[in-house]
Fold each of these.
Amino acid sequence: MVWTDAQGRALTDHPRPSVAVDVAVLTVLDGGLRLLVVDGPFGRALPGTFLHPGERLADAAARALRDKAGVGDLAFHQLGLYDDPARDDRGWVLSMAHGSASPSHSLPPTAELVEIVDDRSALPLAFDHDDMVTAAVHDLRARYADDADPDALLGDRFTLLELRRVHEAIVGRPLPKDTFRRRMLTHIEGTGELVTADAGRPAELFRRIRAHPDA
Amino acid sequence: MVWTDAQGRALTDHPRPSVAVDVAVLTVLDGGLRLLVVDGPFGRALPGTFLHPGERLADAAARALRDKAGVGDLAFHQLGLYDDPARDDRGWVLSMAHGSASPSHSLPPTAELVEIVDDRSALPLAFDHDDMVTAAVHDLRARYADDADPDALLGDRFTLLELRRVHEAIVGRPLPKDTFRRRMLTHIEGTGELVTADAGRPAELFRRIRAHPDA
DNA sequence: CTAATAGTGTCTCTGAGACACTATTTG
DNA sequence: CAAATAGTGTCTCAGAGACACTATTAG
C-alpha cells in the first residue's frame, strides 16, 4: 500500500528538505553572556549538522557539539524550526534551533566565545543564526526567572554571590542582594559549609533543591 | 561545487525525512476546552499535512487547516518538532506541532470537537498527537496567565464575565470575580457601553489594550 | 582598629484572595 | 418588593525593593 497526500502524490514522490540542527550554547564569562561559535565555510556560525537517516534530533545536536566544538554532555532543548526556503544557499534546508547553557569551564579552552550584546551576538553569524541566538537568550532568561540554576551553570555547591552573578549576566542588569537572597531561598538550601574568599565574612555554600514543591 | 557534511557525503546523497505539520486547534465551548480533530485512515488525528517543496511551515499549517478542517485565518505558533523515527508507520516523518486557539463560532458547524480532560484529549489520537495536544494546552495556559485574551478567543468587545469564563476554561478551575477583574484591568479598557443579559445589572463592555506598557 | 563581604530587620508598596457590601437591572 | 448580576471597599497575606543595620572574616 502506498500512502498518498491530499493531492494524490505518493509520499516518496515529494522532494524532501534537508533537516539540520544548530545549537546555541550560552555561557557566563567575566560577568557577561557569551556564545560558543565555530568557524566554517560560511563564516562564524553555531555548531550544527545535518540530521542523519533515522537519527533523533537530540542525538544529532549532541553529535554536532562533539564534532564541531569538542564539547559533550550538554543538556539542550528545542527553540524553533527555521524554515525560510532561502535561508541556506545550498538548497532547501530546515534547521531546528536548540538552546543550551553550560559552565564556561566545561568548554574546551580553544572554544571561540563571542559576547552577547543586546540579546544578540556581538559578531554577525551565518544564515539565520543571529535569530536563533536571540531566541536562545530569551529562552534562557525565561527559564532562570523562576528558578535558581536550572541549567547547572554552577556546580553542586555555590555561594549566593556566585549565583547572583550568574543571574545578573543572564538578565543583563544588577540585582539587589537582599531581595535576591530571599527570593532564591525557596529554590536552594544551605549546606552547613562555609567558604572564605579573599576578604570578608565567609559565605555559606548552598545547593539546589530537587523539584518545585508544588509539582 | 558540492557541499558535503562532516562525513564527506554530498548533501544530496542523504536520505531525507518527510516533514509534516500538525495543528492543535483549541477552543472554548460550554465552559471547557475542546480540540478540533479530523478523521482519517489512522483514526482521529490533528489536522496536518506534508510540507510541500519550498513551502513555509506556516503556509503548510494554514493549508492543512483549510483542506482538512475547513477553517481559515487562524493564528498559530510552533510548539515542537516531533522526531521519533518510529512515530509514523509510513516511514521517516518528522512533524512540527503547532498550537492555535480560536473562537468556536469561527469553526465550521460540522467540525468535530473533543473535550480536553486533564490536559489531554478525551479520545485518543493517532501517532504522537496526544503529546502535541498536551503541549498545546500548556502553551495556551502560559500565554493566558499574564494577558487578557492574546489569541482573540473573544471578539473586539466583551464583558468581564465572558472573559472570566474563557480563563476558567483554560486554567481548568473557577476564578474569583473580584480579583480577576482587578487583575485584568491592566490589560483591558472599558468602552462606555453597557450590555444587558437576561437579568441583573448591565455589564460594561471592554476591549483589549494594544501592547504591554513596559515593552 | 579598618576594610570587606555575608546576612538580617524592617518599612513600604503592590497584587492576590476572601468577604461583605453597594449598584442597577428584570419581573 | 425579590432575584440576579455588576462592581467596590477593605482586610489580610505574601513577595519585591529599598535601606540600614548587625556579623564575621583578613589585615
Amino acid sequence: MSNFEAFFDYIQEISGKLLSANDKHLLMAHFKPKKLRKRQYFLQEGDVCKYIGFIVKGSARTFTVDEKGHEHILKLSLENWWLADFESFYLLTPSRFNIEALEDLEVLQSTNAQIEEFLKHVPAFSAMANAISQNYTIANQKRMQAAISYTAEERYEDLIRNYPQFLQRFPQNMIASYLGLSPETLSRIKKNSFKH
Amino acid sequence: MSNFEAFFDYIQEISGKLLSANDKHLLMAHFKPKKLRKRQYFLQEGDVCKYIGFIVKGSARTFTVDEKGHEHILKLSLENWWLADFESFYLLTPSRFNIEALEDLEVLQSTNAQIEEFLKHVPAFSAMANAISQNYTIANQKRMQAAISYTAEERYEDLIRNYPQFLQRFPQNMIASYLGLSPETLSRIKKNSFKH
DNA sequence: ACATTGAATTGACTTATATCAAGGCTATTT
DNA sequence: AAATAGCCTTGATATAAGTCAATTCAATGT
C-alpha cells in the first residue's frame, strides 16, 4: 500500500535506521488506515484519545472551547506529523481537546499499547521516537519563548519563518487563533507590516 | 556520596526500575558534582550548552534578554529537575538563553555524549528518559494552552495550582516574568483576586 | 549599625489587543 | 444561477496590560 511507503520512508529518514521486512509487516499489521472528511472529528472533548495517528494526507487542528464559547487552537497539523492529545493518549484520561480535520484527512492509527510494542521490538521506531521527542522539546521551547516574550506582530513573523506552509494551508482566522490573537488583530498586523 | 543517593532514588522512582551496583558506579564516574553560588551562571547566551545538570539542591532560571534589555524567564527550575537549554544541548548550537542560579545551586552534570552512553547501557536511565519525555510533553501542552487561551489572572491561578512551591521559592517579579507579565500587573492581579 | 540595593506596591497615563458591528468578497451548495 | 455561509477587512469603542515614576519596606553588604 502506497500509504505505508511514505510512512516507512519517514521512519527511516528521521531515525537514521532501516526497517526490516519483518518490521514493516509488524507496522502494517497494527497501524490501521483511517479516512476522515473535512470537519469530521478525530477526537472529541471528554473522550479518551485512544489512537495516535500519523498524517499521510490532509490537515487538522487541535483546539479547546472556553466558557465563553471561544475556540483556541493549540496545534495545527500537516502531513508527516503525529496527531493525538498526548496527555490523554499517555495517561488514558478524558481529553480537554477536540481534534478536527481541516481538510480531508488520511491517517495511519494505532493504540498506546501497540506503540509500546513497537518501541520494544522495532529499533528504527524507538530511534524515531527519541528523535521526535528532541524535536518536540526544541519546538516547544521556541514556541513558549515566543508566547511570553514576543509581541503579536513578532509572533506572526516567527510563524512565517518557521511554518510558511501554514499560510498556504490554513485560513487566516485559524492562524490567528493558533497565535492567540483575534482574527481582526491579525488582519491589522498584516496591513501594517507592509509599512515596515 | 549523599548527593548521588537522591539522584539514584529519583531515577529508580521515575523509571520504575532498579539500578544495579554497576549502573551506579557508571553514573558516579560520569556525573560530576558542581556547585554554583547564587547569581552565578550555569550557561551564558552565545555559549554551547555542553552540560546537562540534575539539580540536587537550589534553584535556577532560564531567560532571554530582548533588544530593549527586558528579561523574559522561560523556565524556573528546582530540585530533581534537569537543567539545560535542550536545543543547544542536543544540537550543540550556541544558546539564546542564560541560565542563572537563583539560590546556591548543586547539580550533577554530564555531557550529551555521556548521556547517549547511559541511554544505551543503563536500562533504568533510558526508561527514565522516556518517562520524562512524556511528562515534559504533557506539561508543555498545558503551559502552551494557558499562554494562548488564558487571561493573565487565569495563568496566575493555574500556576498556584500546578506549582505552588514557586510562590515560596521565587520572588514575585520572577514569577511575573515567567507568566509573561510585568511585575506591576502581577501585583495588581494579586490585590484584585482578594475581591473574588 | 549604616548605607545600599532590590522588591513590592500604587497612581497616572499610554499602548496593544479585544470586542462589536457592518460590508464586501469568495467559495460552496443546491 | 441563486443562495448561503464563511472569511476578511475596516471603523469605532472598550478593556487589559504595559510603562513610567514615586514611595515604602525588607534584605544585603561593608
